[in-house]
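Fill in residues.
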């Protein structure tokens, strides 16, 4: 066999082994405490072992903002009175059931959230996020909407996950701009 053909065979076998070993979790039973507002968990999509949780946008029939933002002062030059439609306190919770494929257990579950905060002299903002995995809560993360919460050594074939985020503005602003849940697996020993 010539060296080029041998190299191609080795590369093909390596690619086949890599794709065969990639195992994907199943995300199901997704619930949203305030459907259509803040987290838009009912429209979440899985990308491998990552659940991408979209955020709502627009306004409702009462002109309240659906976006995950807390601020009493947010008018823009195009909409100087838009501040009237934002809320100073917003909170949302989503839950999801995660199941590992046969022969695997869940090792870690990581919740990643990005956001922003804006304050001027004397302004205050507050944010709090917790994640509960199989009934065990994480320590809450305060004061920043950008964070990662990790539940390690889960060691189960499935897990129920609940994430709650609360934002408050007085009179600063705080917003969540993206959210995702990432799961890693271990083979059963």
């Amino acid at each position: 066999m010539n060296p080029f053909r041998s190299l191609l065979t080795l590369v093909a076998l390596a690619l086949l082994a890599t794709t065969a070993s990639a195992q994907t979790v199943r995300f199901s039973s997704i619930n949203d405490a305030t459907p259509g507002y803040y987290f838009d968990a009912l429209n979440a999509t899985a990308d491998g072992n990552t659940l991408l949780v979209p955020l709502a946008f627009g306004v409702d029939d009462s002109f309240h903002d659906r976006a995950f933002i807390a601020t009493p002062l947010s008018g823009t030059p195009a909409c100087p009175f838009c501040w009237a439609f934002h809320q100073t306190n917003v909170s949302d919770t989503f839950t999801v059931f995660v199941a590992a494929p046969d022969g695997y257990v869940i090792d870690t579950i990581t919740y990643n959230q990005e956001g922003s905060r804006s304050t001027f002299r004397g302004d205050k903002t507050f944010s709090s996020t917790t994640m509960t995995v199989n009934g065990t809560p994480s320590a809450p993360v305060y004061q920043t909407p950008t964070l990662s919460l990790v539940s390690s050594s889960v060691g189960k074939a499935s897990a129920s996950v609940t994430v709650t985020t609360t934002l408050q503005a007085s009179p600063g602003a705080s917003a969540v701009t993206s959210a995702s849940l990432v799961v890693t697996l271990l083979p059963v020993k």
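The first strand starts at residue 26 and ends at 32.
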